[in-house]
Amino acid sequence: MKKNCSIITVFVLSFSIFLSSCNKTNNENIESTENDSVVIVEEIVDKKDYTIYNFDQKEVVASDAKKELSKMKGETDRVKKEYETVKANYESAIEKLEEAHKNFSAQLDTFNRAKSEFWGTAKNDLTKSYTKSFELLQTAKSLIEKTSSKNDTVETTKN
Questions:
Q1: Relative orientation angle of helices 119-152 and 58-113, to the nearest 10 degrees
Q2: Which of 90, 70, 130 is nearest to 106 (CA)?
Q3: Distance from C-alpha of 31 to C-alpha of 118, rounded to nearest angstrom
Q4: Whole-structure pTM value
Q5: Of 14, 28, 107, 141, which sees the most CB atoms within 10 A?
Q6: CB of 72 within 8 A of CB of 98?
């Protein structure tokens, strides 16, 4: 009887520990999921339909259309500014990338002329130059992907 109680006690304790560790792991997973999540909030914009109004509501329609035109002009100005910023970022990234390629090419020439006594320095310098070129290329690609993904979410409406 004592043996059975001991076995049952060990089993219950083991099961309790197992359940508590599972619960802890689930909570940790939930926390990391919550911290790693990215939420994209997009403003839902209702498109106006002025065809539903009658002639008696002409002034209301004109007033609303004027407000909408003003909003659209403001948004257009914002888009222009955003475009200029993105354009400047692209140009800067491309300039840095082209400069890094020139440096990498020059370093490759130096590497090819290196003698055995300078092998360590030559290969380290070549690796540094390659790494800089590689990282700048990845940054440029990332910039393009970010901009492309923003453009994928934009919808154009034909009137």
A1: 170
A2: 130
A3: 52
A4: 0.50
A5: 107
A6: no
